[in-house]
Amino acid sequence: MTVSQLIVELSQRGVRIEAADDKLRYNPQSSLTPELVEALRRHKQTILAVLQSPDVELAIAWQSALDHLETTGELPGELVTACRRAAVQRAESPQYHATKRHSPSRDHPL
C-alpha cells in the first residue's frame, strides 16, 4: 500500500491522523486493521512529513506523484525512495518552515 492509498483508506474509514512531534496519533483506533497499523508504522516518517508540511495539499500531491512513478516503473525505485527521503528532510528543516510562513505555497514546492 502506498502512502497516498493509506491516507485515502484512513480517510474513507473516518480515521483522523495528527502529527504530535515525532509521533502519529490516530482516532478512532477501532477503525484500524492490523494491516493498516503496520502500514502506518512503515510509512510513519513520510506521513509525519506530509502532516507537518506548511502546505499539506501540496505534500499529498507530491507523494501521489511519487506513488504513480513507483507503481508504473517510470522511475527507478531507488530514485523514488531518495525523493521521499528528501521530502521528509526538507519538511523537517526549520528553514523550510520559516520560509513557508512568509511566502506563497507555490513558491516552494516539496
In short:
This protein has 110 residues and is mainly alpha-helical.
How would you describe this structure to a colleague?
- The protein contains six helices and two strands, in the order αββααααα.
- The radius of gyration is 14 Å and the shape is globular.
- The chain has one domain.
- Helix content is 64%, strand content 9%.
- The C terminus is likely disordered.
- A two-stranded antiparallel sheet has the order 1-2.
- Biggest sheet architecture: 2 strands, antiparallel
Q: Are there runs of 5+ residues with pLDDT below 50, and where?
A: 101-110
Q: Which structural category fits the helices and strands?
A: mainly alpha
Q: How many structurally independent domains? A: 1
Helix fraction bin: 55-70%
What keywords describe this structure?
about 110 residues; mainly alpha; 6 helices; globular; disordered C terminus
Set out the fold topology:
Layout: H1 3-12, E1 16-20, E2 23-27, H2 34-42, H3 44-52, H4 56-72, H5 77-92, H6 94-102
Antiparallel strand pairs: 1-2
